[in-house]
Amino acid sequence: MTATRRHFLKTAGLAAAAAGATRCLGALKYAGSAPRPNIILIVADDLGYGDLGCYGQQKILTPNIDRMTTEGVRFSQFYAGSPVCAPSRCSLMTGMHNGHNRIRDNLPHGIFLRPDDITVAEVLKQAGYRTGAIGKWSLGEAGSHGVPNKQGFDYWYGHLSQDQAIQYYPTYLWENEKMVLLQDMVMVNDVGKMVGNKAGKRVKYTHDLFTDKALSFIDDNAERPFFLYLAYTIPHFSEYPPGDPDHFMVPGDAPYSDRPWPQAAKNYAAMIGRLDRDAGRIMDRIEKLGLDSNTIVFFTSDNGPYRGCPETRDFFDSNGPLRGGKRDLYEGGIRVPMIVRWPGKIQPGTVNNSLCAFWDFLPTAAELARVPAPDGIDGINILPLILGGALAAAHDYFYWDYGHVRKTYKQAVRIGRFKAVRNGRDARVELYDLNHDIGETNDLAGEYPELVRHIEQIMAAAAAPAGGVFEQ
Asked: Do both 293 and 411 map to the same domain?
């Protein structure tokens, strides 16, 4: 992506917005004099496909998120950008699949968004949106060009680093480009970097702070179009090892305190309950402000569920019918919940079985704002699906990879009903028919050799060289 394209986006201003409005008027049911809708994107961290009641969970109560489904549309085949957080969030922000992402893995540090990367926040600012990001960022640390305020966000509050985000009672967070201390004591590690106080006093639970800031952002911008990216950190495990009662850290385990469950399971369920409670608070606030009919809310997760704690992994069956979880390119690692609510615009209680992915969010948001999406991205506008229609043209294929800085480099491709996985640079390609084998148990590669060869060609071409440590 070139600096010229970014410069055009920043300077085109009202002319680009006007061109986008003309292009989109025929496609949108709310076209005409109606205001551009507010856009809220809520992203959970490591929430599994099977962790919500509306996706089949039987033990954890999620009434508010389930209500989003009854009032909106639930996608059954929606995919994250990656099986881990940083590249997945990069796909979400830039409209690129992982073969073209700037950030292709959680490691190493120092790979951040650059000035010539175009984010959804920058696109929406051209339509006059006030943009805010709250929670977990993962795309640039302090002093880099990748921080939210240099990537199109007017307001930012939260963790810049995914490593710090596993601390639920940290010593500090970032508000815009200023460090905000949450405790009196700040620990410094052996290389001079400030870190959270793992053993110190528990003062302020980050998830609650994020919700308060999100509600304030909505209140402050109720009179103008806004985009809120609310990237929660729960139910990600904390810094404590599996088996520790605080591996899933939460202020209290209600309403599961009296259940005959492992403590980690109680905590995990309580974390999801807190997520559900605050999703409800967000919806209640926009309704109270009279913004309900002009606010579209997206809810999803950044990747599949964490599988390192048997007390939760097996107890809740967080991946539902899917194989694998976080760090896998089987369905359990990348297929995630996706719910969209927009009262009066979306047919309530709809289930959509179309294939969509994180990189589709940017062009969809651009369509909502009536501005052009950047050229050369991998995503497509899925607003017609959200509104109950069909796409003029779907993706030719979906692509993922993972493990650039590890010994095992994995790739996956989906074409229609078929999904291919390769677990290693020299490993054979596995092939599954997801229409009949959602659990990816029956490898059909031997029955479709021509399709496998075609997919191998896609795998060879879809990942553009990234340079440096990510060079293949």
From this structure: no
